[in-house]
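user: Here is a favour to ask of a fellow structure person. I have my own habits and do not want them to colour yours. Could you put it straight underneath, so I can go through it closely?

assistant:
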Amino acid sequence: MKVISVVNQKGGVGKTNLTTNLAAYLSSLGKKILLIDFDPQANATSGLGVEKSKKGIYEILNKETLLDEGIIEVKKNLFLIPANQDLVGATVEWVALAERETILKKTLSSLPPNFDFVFIDTPPSLGLLTVNSLTMADYLVIPVQAEYYALEGLSSLLNTVSLIKENLHPGLDILGAVITMYDKRSRLSEEVWEELYRHFPGKIFRTIIPRNVKLAEAPSFGKSVLDYAPFSPGARAYKRLAKEFITEISRISH
């Protein structure tokens, strides 16, 4: 079982879209997937058509709900631990706790081992929730929007990752960055692509996620793009990304 945290402290980069759609396509390829919605906005929860639950990740962390009671089967091979806005309180409640950066990892240490991949969808910040997701993760995936300010803040994220590796979790590694919302007609998108290669040599997924109406619409119907518009350009891109993901994680795991 490999744990992947999907992180970018900048909002609006397609982070939740990336998490839910990659998880959905991997499940369609026969991988057993658990998605943990660790964002108080609970967009991954609603984006998969699940109602915000009072038996979600916050309640599990507070020991109000048993772990197996909080895991919902969304479809074959795809499972979700939902979130709700109560998760906002965790960042305040945990501040005075010892080892507050590893609460998620310790609480979920009893996860069933039969999942192939666990994805954690994080808030758009480098706060305590995101740090907890990184201390639990084996790998980090970074969605980067192909736009002017996309690379701003990446240095802060990389610095946070370095600190976590040094002080909390030396095994954390960057699996790669994924370019999202790419417009092939835009010279700017091309420039962001080139700049990203300079930042992450050898750590860029070859699959680019295009700017696509169907991708943007799918969450409002509570569906992944696989279930909403499987023949759209966005869906085809996520199918390629899922296959590339499996290839890459197999390569570095051996």
